[in-house]
Write a structure and sequence with these properties.
Layout lengths: L1 H30 L14 H7 L2 H9 L1 H7 L14 H12 L12
Length: 109
């Protein structure tokens, strides 16, 4: 049982690392022009998004920003809709949410 637990932990750690790498790749491909991880750019930083939104809302905002913006009460939206593969959508959502506790730069530039 102990070997199984250790194996599972190693497998989970490996997969989590792949997810983070995948999320970073999706970020670099689609998001970095308007968003940064912790600094304000054209769009809000991932740290701000992660502190205000859950995974479902983040996914919806990526795939249908016009509708979600209306639901959230925004008068306009500049974000285009993205047609991502399911694994890309999961990866970028997890990547964004990984900044939820990373508020060490809060209050800085």
């Amino acid at each position: 049982m102990k070997k199984f637990s250790i194996s599972f932990l190693l497998f989970y750690t490996f997969c989590s690392g792949l997810s983070a790498q995948s999320g970073k790749k999706v970020f670099e491909t689609y998001c970095w022009g308007c968003h940064h991880q912790t600094a304000v750019a054209f769009g809000p930083p991932f740290s701000a998004i992660a502190s205000k939104r859950d995974a479902t809302t983040i996914r919806a905002m990526i795939t249908d920003p016009k509708s979600v913006s209306k639901v959230l009460g925004y008068s306009r939206n500049a974000m285009p809709a993205f047609q991502l593969k399911e694994e890309e959508l999961k990866a970028i959502t997890a990547y964004i949410l990984s900044y939820q506790e990373n508020n060490t730069t809060k209050g800085k530039k």
